[in-house]
Each structure stands twice: as structure tokens, then as C-alpha cells.
């Protein structure tokens, strides 16, 4: 694969990760602007469909090279990826982007925490749980949409499955071939939802252009930036930087979507970020799977 960022113009790894985070959350904000035209289902179909076409063109995977077991792993990976995106976009239709990303982060955080046997690591689960309670619709004075919260948490669950199955996928496939095939499966899952929600509106030229923009910002560009950074950045540092995603999402939501968060919601975000950083430190020291970026 020829990366979008060539070695001659390679960015400092920390800068590349931060740019990837901004790109992902900027893509999510752009996606939300498409909801009035095609809904979250249509937007998911456009994002995943274009991302699949881009990755297939880059990697050109051949099915004949892989066993049925490998292809079954790809199907599971793609299903987790497709459902994660559908649930996440449905959630940000109902709740602010920053809150949805904060809640979604519970998935990868849970993978890191519950793979551990150290008592200290359960502190991170307690911190994250406190953050969720602050956001919860059951909290006193909360006006947050309960369905939006539930969908964001469900997206986090699919993100956890994506990480666990993705580890198997990485061992079975070379380069990004498994990711390309998984994205194709995800596109096939998302497409019926998109057609049912948006119909022929998906084919409007301006919608296709915006959908391609969402795919580039949310998938192709950040993936290239992250791969560039990972070649030179320790996994612990990478995971800690990716833990900033909820904060960046809140900033993008405020600047681009005019979504302001309350003091309680900001405190909840800080607690989840702190838990994610703590879990990242434990994960890297004990060879556990760290919370990864790219969920939203």
C-alpha cells in the first residue's frame, strides 16, 4: 500500500496521531450534518461503502489465499464494524457528539480493564462507571436522551468486539487485506439500512461528494496517519493520545455543531479520559490490548 503520508513528508508521530483524532471527529461532525438529508443509516452506508472501495483499491485482497476460518473471522470483524458505525451514528442523532464518544469509549476501556488481574486496574472501571452515571438519563436533572445513551454504549460493545476479533484478523491477514475485506462486509450490512432510510437520496451528486468526504476524514486519512505514527511511537504513548478522543469530539461538536456540554457532562468526560489513560498504562506494561482509536 502507498500511504497517504509519504516518508519524505512524514509528520512527527505525535502530530500524526493528533491529526488523526481531529480528522475522525471532524468526519463525525460532517456526518451529522448529513442526517437531515439521508439519516444516520444513509450516512453510515455512504461512509462505510466509500471506505470499503478505497481500501479494496489500495489492498486488492484475494479470497483464494485464505481459509474458511480466516474468512469467517473477517465476517465477524466486518459485522462488528458495521454495527458499531450504525449504532454510533444513530446515537449522535440524539445526543451530543462529545457525549457519544465518551460513552463509546467504554468498549475498548472494558477490554483493557477486564483482561487484567491487578486490583489497581479495577479503579479505571470505577472511574469510567462514575462518568457514565453522571451522563446517565437516571441522574438527577438529566435531560439526555436515554435511547441515544443506550445506542452509544451498544456502539462501545461492538467496538470491544471489533478490537478482540481484530487481533485475530491481524494474525491471519497480511497488511490491510483483512481490514479491506472486513470493511466490505460492514458495507453490505450498512447498505440495507441506508437504502431503507434514504432511498434514492443516497445517489444525489452532492450527497455522494459529502459521503466521500466523511469516508476520507473518518477512515482513509486517519488510518494512514495512525499507521505512520505507530512505526515510531510506543504503543503506550499512542493509546494515551487516543484517549483524548472524547475531548476532541466535544470540541468539534461545540465548534462545528454548536453543541455545548454542561459542567456535569464535562466532568464525566474527564473521568472516562482518566480511566482510559490509566488502562492504557496498565495495558502497555502487562501486554494487554489497549484502548484503540477509530471507533467513531
UniProtKB/TrEMBL annotation:
Coiled coil: none annotated. Pfam families: EamA. One of its GO terms (cellular component) is plasma membrane. InterPro entries: Diverse_Substrate_Transporter, EamA_dom, EmrE-like. It comes from the Bacteria. It is found in: Cell membrane. Residues 147-278 form the EamA domain. Keywords: Cell membrane, Membrane, Transmembrane, Transmembrane helix. It is a multi-pass membrane protein. This is Putative permease, DMT superfamily. It comes from Deinococcus peraridilitoris (strain DSM 19664 / LMG 22246 / CIP 109416 / KR-200).
Amino acid at each position: 500500500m502507498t500511504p497517504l503520508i509519504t516518508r519524505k513528508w512524514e509528520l512527527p508521530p505525535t502530530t500524526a496521531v493528533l491529526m488523526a483524532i481531529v480528522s475522525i471527529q471532524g468526519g463525525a461532525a460532517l456526518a451529522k450534518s448529513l442526517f437531515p438529508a439521508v439519516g444516520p443509516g444513509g450516512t453510515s452506508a455512504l461512509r462505510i461503502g466509500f471506505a470499503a472501495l478505497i481500501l479494496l483499491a489500495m489492498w486488492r485482497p484475494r479470497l483464494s489465499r485464505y481459509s474458511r476460518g480466516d474468512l469467517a473471522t473477517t465476517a465477524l470483524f466486518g459485522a462488528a464494524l458495521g454495527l458499531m458505525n450504525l449504532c454510533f451514528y444513530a446515537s449522535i442523532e440524539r445526543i451530543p457528539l462529545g457525549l457519544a464518544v465518551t460513552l463509546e469509549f467504554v468498549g475498548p476501556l472494558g477490554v483493557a480493564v477486564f483482561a487484567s488481574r491487578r486490583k489497581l486496574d479495577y479503579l479505571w472501571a470505577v472511574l469510567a462507571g462514575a462518568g457514565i452515571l453522571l451522563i446517565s438519563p437516571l441522574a438527577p436533572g438529566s435531560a439526555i436522551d436515554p435511547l441515544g445513551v443506550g445506542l452509544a454504549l451498544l456502539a462501545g460493545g461492538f467496538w470491544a468486539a471489533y478490537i478482540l476479533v481484530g487481533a485475530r484478523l491481524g494474525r491471519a491477514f497480511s497488511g490491510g487485506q483483512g481490514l479491506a475485506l472486513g470493511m466490505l462486509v460492514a458495507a453490505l450490512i450498512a447498505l440495507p439500512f441506508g437504502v431503507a432510510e434514504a432511498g434514492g437520496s443516497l445517489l444525489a451528486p452532492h450527497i455522494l461528494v459529502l459521503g466521500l468526504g466523511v469516508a476520507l476524514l473518518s477512515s482513509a486519512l486517519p488510518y494512514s496517519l495512525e499507521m505512520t505514527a505507530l512505526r515510531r511511537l510506543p504503543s503506550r504513548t499512542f493509546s494515551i493520545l487516543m484517549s483524548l478522543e472524547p475531548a476532541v469530539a466535544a470540541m468539534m461538536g461545540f465548534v462545528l455543531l454548536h453543541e455545548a456540554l454542561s459542567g456535569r457532562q464535562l466532568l464525566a468526560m474527564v473521568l472516562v479520559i482518566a480511566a482510559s489513560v490509566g488502562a492504557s498504562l496498565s495495558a502497555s506494561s502487562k501486554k494487554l490490548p489497549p484502548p484503540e482509536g477509530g471507533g467513531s
